[in-house]
Design a protein that fits this description.
DUF5131 family protein, 7 helices, DUF5131, 296 residues, globular
Length: 296
C-alpha cells in the first residue's frame, strides 16, 4: 500500500486488491505476475503464459484509507491488480466505488483489461443502487453528516471523480477495448497504451463528437525481457492526440530499439534510469505530459 507513488501519471496508489491473471499480449512481462520464481505475499506464480496467475487477494482493511487522506490527490486504484478481475466479487467492487464517492475530494484512476465486466457493471442500475446503499452504510460507520456531497454525486452517476480507462497495447486490443469503454458510463474515459507493442491508430469515432476519449497515456515496457517500443509508434499516437485535441501523457520510454537509443549523440536514459522515465534525455517532441480536462 503506497501513500505516495512513483508512477508518473498519479500521486498515490490504493491497492484494495492484489494479484492478477494474464489475459493478453500486454500481460506477458507484467510486474504484478512476473516470471518464475516470482512470489507475491507468499503465493508462488504458476507460469509465464497467458492464463498464469498469482491468485487474487482482497484487502478490506484498506478500503477506507482515502477517507483519511485530507489533501486532494490523484489516486491510482490497484496498481497491483485489476479491479474487474472475475475473482473480485461485485459487492466488493461496489464498496470500492462507495469509498470513491465519499472521498470526492480525490480523483481516482481505474484501469482494466476486463472491458466487458467494466461496461456491464457501470451501465447497470442495480450496481448503481448497490454503490448508493454501501455509501450510506459507510456514511453511518464513519459518523459523517446525513447529507453530504457524495449523496448528491451519486444521483449524477457516473461518479465525476472517477476516471475509467482500458489498456491498449496493440491495434487489436484498441479495436476491442476502446469501443467497449466508450459504451461505458464514465465521467472521463482514457487509455493506457503501455506497454505499447505496435502502432495504434485512433479511429475518428473514438475522438470525435459524443462519448470520446479524454486522455491517452503512452509508455514502453521495462524490466527483464522487456519488448522494445519503436519511438515512431509513440510519436504517431502523440501526434494523433494533438490533432484531435486529446490530452496525451508520455509516461516512460522503457526499452527502445537500438536505432532510437541515442539522440544527438547521447543516450535516451540517465545513468541508472533504465525505465526511461527521465524525460530530459528524450527527444523534444515526446516530452508531453498533459492531463485530462474535466468540468471540475
Amino acid at each position: 500500500m503506497a501513500d505516495k507513488s512513483k508512477i508518473q501519471r498519479t500521486e498515490s496508489t490504493w491497492n484494495v486488491v492484489t494479484g492478477c491473471t494474464k489475459i493478453s499480449d500486454g500481460c506477458v512481462n507484467c510486474y504484478i505476475t512476473g516470471t518464475p520464481p516470482f512470489r507475491m505475499a507468499g503465493r508462488k506464480f504458476d507460469g509465464p503464459g497467458i492464463g498464469a496467475s498469482t491468485g487474487v487477494t482482497l484487502h478490506p482493511d484498506r478500503l477506507e484509507m482515502p477517507l483519511r487522506w485530507k489533501q486532494p490527490r490523484m489516486v491510482f486504484v490497484n496498481s497491483l491488480a485489476d479491479l474487474f478481475h472475475e475473482d473480485v466479487p461485485t459487492e466488493y467492487i461496489a464498496q470500492v466505488f462507495a469509498v470513491m464517492a465519499l472521498a470526492s475530494r480525490h480523483t481516482f484512476q481505474v484501469l482494466t483489461k476486463r472491458h466487458a465486466r467494466l461496461r456491464a457493471l457501470l451501465n447497470s442500475r442495480h450496481f448503481h443502487l448497490a454503490v448508493l446503499a454501501r455509501t450510506l452504510h459507510l456514511q453511518d460507520d464513519n459518523h459523517l453528516p446525513p447529507w453530504n456531497p457524495a449523496t448528491r454525486t451519486l444521483t449524477k452517476w457516473p461518479l465525476p471523480n472517477v476516471h475509467v480507462g482500458v489498456s491498449v497495447e496493440t491495434q487489436q486490443w484498441a479495436d476491442i477495448r476502446i469501443p467497449a469503454l466508450l459504451d461505458t458510463l464514465a465521467a472521463v474515459r482514457w487509455i493506457s497504451a503501455e506497454p505499447l507493442l505496435g502502432p495504434v491508430q485512433l479511429r475518428s469515432e473514438w475522438v470525435g463528437d459524443g462519448p470520446s476519449l479524454s486522455w491517452a497515456v503512452v509508455g514502453g515496457e521495462s524490466g527483464v525481457g522487456a519488448r522494445p517500443m519503436d519511438l515512431a509508434w509513440a510519436r504517431s499516437l502523440v501526434r494523433q492526440c494533438q490533432l484531435t485535441k486529446t490530452p496525451a501523457f508520455v509516461k516512460q520510454l522503457g526499452s527502445v530499439y537500438a536505432k532510437d537509443l541515442f539522440v544527438g549523440g547521447r543516450s535516451l536514459y540517465a545513468q541508472g534510469d533504465r525505465k526511461g522515465g527521465d524525460w530530459t534525455h528524450w527527444p523534444t517532441d515526446l516530452r508531453v505530459r498533459e492531463h485530462p480536462l474535466t468540468d471540475g
